[in-house]
Amino acid sequence: MKTRQLGKGGPQVGAVGLGCMSFAGFYGETDLATSHDTLDAAREYGVDFLDTALIYGMGKSEEVIGSYLKANPNHGFKIATKGGIETQPTRHFNNSEASLRRALESSLKRLGVDYVDLYYIHRREAERPIEEVTETLAKFIKEGKIGGIGYSEIAPSSLRRAHAVHPVMAVQSEYSLWTRQPEMGMIQTCAELGVAFVPFSPVARGMFADAFPDPADFAETDFRKKQPRFMEENFAANCKILERFQDFCTSRGWSPAGTAIAWTLDQGSHIIPIPGTRTRAHLEQLVEGDAIEFTDEDRAEIKRILPIGWAHGDRYSDAQIVGVERYC
After folding, report:
1. Which of 246, 235, 180, 178 has its CA nearest to residue 209?
2. Residue 196 is part of a domain; what is its CATH number?
3. How many Cα neighbours within 13 Å face the side chain of 95?
């Protein structure tokens, strides 16, 4: 696999990373053996950048990764995790130094490491100046606990404020052929400042799979169950449009998932998508994206089939979008 730099001065990592939220069962049941097999496959394919978070199963995803790292000390993975969300007494955001330190220390313990390559603020606490939060993260760098600073789902203006205090390594936001808001400033700001842009859900939460997911089969715990794009009549409309994209991919001999990954990579050399999966078979399709090369004709056809703004319904419910900085 080709590599890309994780932010200016950061490490080289595989162009396609692996989001590990699925290891915590957000999209259905999984087990330790299957998750470990997926991590084995990642190493085989050159996928060496893992993305997890404290909130994923309240540490379950980190524990799965930690058990793998312990059994495979020469794993070669670069690890990113996240903090800043607390769940007691109710879900809220806390970016204070004391809270972030507790969260980071607990993440390191579950992962079985004393250092992570990248630490994100999962959601920004709006009342606390981002300059203060960045100073806290800079302390963690000096203490040798993290390699770089990251933020998730912030606005370009917030990135500029943080970056003025200490260089930011990466910004993570949802970005795919059906979620395009980062094109309204974040992708450009990251490129200008030398910050990696890390798209999560680049295969649209399973919509770019060979077969569409069936919302009727979603478990009560499935993250998608309350998302408007997976509710009728939006879901039927989205499937109808995506059938044309599937036909295009078939005509080129590509999988829809691989094509979706290739499209994100094609949007900038500083972009490192982190698709999530819990199986080896799906990972095989995702890494195909690194090998796909588009012609101008391909780009034009994708744009015709899936023009910006084509998706029906919001990407999050009103409850899920709390904490996301909406800058346009």
Report:
1. 246
2. 3.20.20.100
3. 23
As a whole number of angstroms, the distance between CA 204 and CA 293 comes to 21
Stretch 292-313: mean pLDDT: 97
Position 132 in a domain? yes
Q: Is residue 193 part of a domain?
A: yes
33-69 pLDDT tens trace:
999 999 999 999 999 999 999 999 999 999 999 999 9
Cα–Cα distance measured from residue 172 to residue 121, given in angstroms and rounded to the nearest whole number: 10
CA 203 from chain center: how many Å?
10
Q: Are 27 and 278 in contact (CB under 8 A)?
A: yes
Query: Do the domain assignments include residue 327?
Result: no
Length of the chain: 328
Instruction: Please state the domain count of the chain.
Output: 1
Which residues constitute the domain of residue 33? 3-210+255-293
Q: How far is the CA of 11 from the CAs of 46, 78, 122, 200, 226, in angstroms?
A: 14, 8, 21, 19, 37
- For residue 92, tell me if it sits in a domain: yes
Q: Is 56 a catalytic residue?
A: yes
List of long-range contacts for 215-221, beta carbons under 8 Å, 24+ apart: 219/28, 219/29, 221/25, 221/26
The whole-angstrom separation of Cα 203 and Cα 242 is: 12
pTM of this structure? 0.96
Per-residue pLDDT at 28: 66
Mean pLDDT across the chain = 96
pLDDT of residue 306: 98
> Which residue of the set 45, 56, 68, 175 is catalytic?
56
Render 38-86 in DSSP notation, one character per residue: HHHHHHHHT--EEE--TTTTTTHHHHHHHHHHHH-TT---EEEEEE-EE
